[in-house]
Every structure is written in structure tokens, then in C-alpha cells.
Amino acid sequence: MTHPAPSRKPTLLSRGSWPEARRIGAILRKETVGGALLLAGAVVAMIWANSPWAGAYESLRDLRVGPEALHLNLPLGTWAADGLLAVFFFVAGLELKREFVAGDLRDVRRAAVPIAAALGGVIAPALLYLLVTRGVEGAGKGWAIPTATDIAFALAVLAVIGRFLPTALRTFLLTLAVVDDLVAIVIIALFYTDHLAPVPLLAALVPLALFTALVQRRVRSWWLLLPLAVTAWALVHASGVHATVAGVLLGFAVPVLRSDKAGGPEAGPGLAEHFEHRFRPLSAGVAVPVFAFFSAGVSLGGPAGLVDAFADPVVVGIAVGLVAGKPIGIMGATWLMSRFTHADLDEGLSWVDMLGLSILAGIGFTVSLLIGELAFGIEGAGHVKVAVLTGSVTAALLATVILRLRNRVYRRIHEMETADLDHDGVPDVYETDRPGAVGG
């Protein structure tokens, strides 16, 4: 008599497939380097903006370059926010599409938890911000500032404090940040477009369609693709929609899987992964650090100026949203998912680990600063920068304390994961855990 196989109880924060874990590990290494450069750019900007040479920093940030005839004679700070960050969002678009087409997120059950956590991590900070700033005229337009997680900044912190952080937690943090980026893109497109010019927006569809047609035919020639991408970006910029949205749309246009003529999905990485390898170093190593340099420079006015800044409810609302709202939203959504699905945390992990990771997700920098400038303008975003920097540093310190206390446990899990890897090519635990795999 054949007995039915025992049903496996659903698990939160499972390690996932080995190929996906290996790919994400490579991404994390690049983003960690980018995070270090981001921090360096932010620190240099803060020191310069609070030095006797602050005027030189402001002159550099406000220096206008670009063709006036095309309405692209913009300050360098705007070029960094609208231009360089389009590269960042192009890579985000590639990563988002790949995760949902070929990554672990194509499995609805596996995707449900980080998606729910990301949404909780957007809703709770926004509600806390609105609660703190209620009754303050004009403050409501900044509700989205504390909703974003800066993956590069967070991974730079992890590189220092969490060298042995389990693969499941790293993967969860990256996945949450990827979904977070998608939500941020939608928020920017829907809520921070003041004046819409339909003609340039419709005209942008032409280069976007040509770009899509070429990449769908697996064309990689930069001299064909780059002019189309730049044209699409310029037209979206002229339409009034934030130009970074063009980067996302271009990323979504790139195919993830190989064509049947090229051997299909089993033949190796597709064009999206090829572009990601090319552009991620540019995004993490240049685009985001330069944006941080031009955005983080704010004159604090000494200790008294810092105290005055926190008399502003907007500053308090942003800081509370990042430090308290993020963990409340992420922890709450994850706990609800565990209740509804009757899932337990993976072996060796506890809710303390989720708390530390949720607080770490309160590091909001790149997109938070961008939304701050969109909400209050470059001139009016000084207090926003103070709030984002203070909230992010506080979240980093709190997460450091919690995750360091668990370092011995993480080291033990890391040793087990390393032992699982078979260098002789025999399927390891990641492979055998998959349905249909050998031993699965």
C-alpha cells in the first residue's frame, strides 16, 4: 500500500532555489559597493554644505548645463535626480521584470509574503506621517517620503554588521526593496505629476515602441538603442511626468527569457540579465552616489539648527515614519500572512530577526530624497533632508544593535548553508528542495 507523501507546512523566509540565491548574492555584492559610495557621497556633501565653502557647493549644484532649445538647460542637481536616477530605475525595471518572469517571485506563494510586507511598509509610514502632520498646511503632500527603502544604503550597513546574515533574510530584504521600488514608481507617476503635457507624452511612445521592437528582436547595438532611450527620456521629461518613469518603462520592455531560436530559457540568461550586468555597476557606482552628493548637502546651522528642524512636524513625521512606521508595517503584514497561511519562520530564524530586518528597511535615502524634492521643491526640501538622514541613521543604528545580538546564530546558519553547497556539481539542498527535482 502506497502512503501519500506528508504535506510540507508553508515556511516564511525560506532560502529559495540555489540558482536564484547565487544570482541575488552577486547583486548584493554590487549593491553593497554602491552603498559604500552612496554613503561617501552623502558624507562629503554634508561636510561641504556645512563648511565655510558652502557657497561653492551650492554654486556647483545649481550650475546649469544642457541645450536651452530642448528645455534641457537644467541645474546639475536636477540632472542627477532626473537623468542619472533614470539609470537607477532602468535597472530596477529590469530586476522587477526578471523577478516576476523568471525569478522566485513567479511563484505566487513565495511572492506573497515580501509583496505584503512591502505594501505594509508603505502604508504604515504614510499613515503615521499623516497622523503626526495633521492640521499642518501643505504638509500632506509629503506623505510618500518615508515609504521608500534604500537597498544600497541598507546593504552597506549589512556589509558592516551582518556578514553572516542568512541567505533567506538577504533575499527577503532585496525582494522587499524591489517591490518597494515598483510602488515608489507608481506613486511618483500618479501623485507627483503636477502639469501633464499630453503631446510629448504621446510622442514618447514612438521611441519607446521602436526600442521595444529592437530589444524583442534581441538587438544589443548601443548606437541604435541609446538614442531611442534618450529620446524617450527627454519626451517624458517634457511631458511633466517624472523622467525616471521612462527608465522603468524601458526596463520593462527588455525580454527576460531567451528566444526559442537562441535555445529558450534553458540556454542561459536573457537580454534583461545581460543589460543588468552592464548597467548595475553604472547605477550603483555612479548614478546613485552622484545623486546622493547633490541631494544630501543641507546646511544644518549647528546644533541649534538641528533642534529647530525638529520643531517642524514634517521632520518629525518623516523620521517617525521611517523608524517606527516601516517596522510596524512590515512586521504587521508578515505576521498576518503567517496567521492566514499557518506558516512558520524557517528553521533557526525568529521574529527578532524579522524585527531587525524591518527596522533596517527604515533606511530611506535615494527615493525618499527624490520624493521630498518633488513634494516641496529643491529650495523647500532642506528640512526633509534632515529628517531623512536622521531617520535613516537612527534605523541603521537600531538594526545594528538587534542584528549584532543574533550574530552567533547567523554564523551557525551560514556554516550550515556553506556545507550544503556541493562543489562537485551534485544537486544541493536548494535544488532538491524544488518540486520535481532529484530527491524532491
From TrEMBL:
It comes from the Bacteria. InterPro entries: Na/H_antiporter_dom_sf (IPR023171), NhaA (IPR004670). The chain crosses the membrane at residues 32-49, 69-91, 111-131, 143-165, 172-192, 198-215, 314-337, 349-371, 383-403. It is a multi-pass membrane protein. Belongs to the NhaA Na(+)/H(+) (TC 2.A.33) antiporter family. Na(+)/H(+) antiporter that extrudes sodium in exchange for external protons. This is Na(+)/H(+) antiporter NhaA.
